[in-house]
């Protein structure tokens, strides 16, 4: 899944500057005749905040020097968060079944293809400033407790929405997914993807020993049912000229290519090629149509793609592969954004 929003902000604002001031300044601290504040060498430590100390050379423009030091302090916090990310046990919800690994991989693959919305979190704030003879120093902080509280609230609200959506299913949890419920299941994909994004963020900031953001038994059962639906519904690309490449693209989006299936694909494309500077440029364009239950036409998309290679057949194969990926991406986006 995604770089976390706060880490991204901290790294973008602080990483470049940190290379010039974050480490060298501490080696030069002895040049300051004044005694440095204790927080420079020993920043506070507690369960509610993360702290970072930054420094920068002292220049005539003191405001600019402090600004650079704050960026360095932000970068130090980002480094702490990055270290925590590598230590987090991001176990996925387990699905108990004879082929559980396959089921988990289906929803997890689908989740990665959904564009989730970041939650607006706290940004770093300045706690202390100090100007020495040669360097300026700052203490930056992030209130992790407020971030944890907001994320827990967002996950709680999302779980209520998931349960409410699942309430419209015509079969009970544990039974085979009904073809008539396909729209409800497709709406659950982005909901669970968003939930996973929030949980990963929560695990980053939470100090709980247990896995933060664990779902209730009811939500776990709904996700298990979603797994089962993605496997049982399936999408049939076998009657298209791009059967193999469409099947591969479907798998990349967590869909199950099989025949027969609840959904069926029909394509109508053409290719043309050009040769320039010893390379072949093959262009493939055309439409992909999706048919659903009772063979009803649901939607269609027009897609263009190209392939480039020294060998014409390889360029043509690449164009077909790229066309298939773009077509399935458009289809998946439509399916998971149904009102």
Automatic annotation (TrEMBL):
Residue intervals of the Lipoprotein LPP20-like domain: 37-136
Source organism per UniProt: Marinomonas posidonica (strain CECT 7376 / NCIMB 14433 / IVIA-Po-181)
One Pfam family matching this protein: LPP20
Official protein name in the record: Lipoprotein LPP20-like domain-containing protein
InterPro entries found in the cross-reference section: LPP20-like_dom
Gene3D superfamilies linked: Acetamidase/Formamidase-like domains (3.10.28.20)
């Amino acid at each position: 899944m995604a770089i976390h929003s706060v880490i991204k902000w901290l790294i973008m604002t602080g990483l470049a500057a940190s290379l010039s001031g974050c480490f060298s300044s501490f080696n030069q601290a002895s040049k300051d005749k004044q005694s440095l504040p204790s927080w420079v060498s020993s920043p506070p430590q507690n369960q509610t905040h993360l702290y970072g100390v930054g420094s920068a050379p002292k220049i005539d423009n003191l405001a600019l020097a402090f600004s650079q030091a704050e960026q360095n302090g932000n970068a130090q916090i980002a480094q702490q968060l990055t270290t925590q990310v590598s230590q987090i046990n991001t176990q996925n919800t387990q699905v108990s079944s004879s082929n559980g690994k396959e089921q988990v991989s289906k929803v997890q693959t689908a989740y990665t293809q959904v564009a989730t919305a970041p939650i607006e979190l706290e940004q770093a704030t300045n706690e202390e400033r100090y100007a020495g003879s040669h360097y300026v120093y700052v203490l930056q902080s992030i209130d992790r407790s407020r971030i944890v509280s907001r994320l827990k609230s967002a996950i709680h609200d999302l779980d209520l929405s998931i349960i409410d959506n699942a309430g419209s299913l015509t079969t009970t949890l544990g039974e085979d997914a009904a073809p008539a419920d396909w729209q409800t299941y497709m709406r659950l994909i982005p909901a669970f993807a968003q939930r996973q994004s929030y949980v990963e963020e929560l695990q980053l900031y939470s100090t709980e020993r247990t896995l933060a953001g664990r779902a209730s038994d009811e939500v776990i059962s709904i996700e298990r049912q979603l797994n089962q639906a993605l496997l049982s519904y399936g999408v049939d690309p076998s009657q298209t000229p791009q059967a193999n490449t469409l099947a591969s693209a479907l798998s990349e989006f967590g869909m199950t290519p099989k025949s027969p299936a609840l959904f069926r694909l029909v394509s109508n494309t053409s290719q043309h090629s050009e040769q320039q500077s010893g390379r072949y440029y093959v262009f493939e364009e055309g439409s992909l149509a999706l048919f659903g239950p009772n063979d009803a036409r649901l939607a269609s998309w027009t897609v263009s793609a190209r392939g480039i290679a020294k060998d014409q057949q390889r360029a043509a194969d690449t164009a077909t592969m790229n066309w298939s990926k773009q077509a399935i991406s458009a289809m998946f986006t439509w399916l998971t954004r149904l009102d």
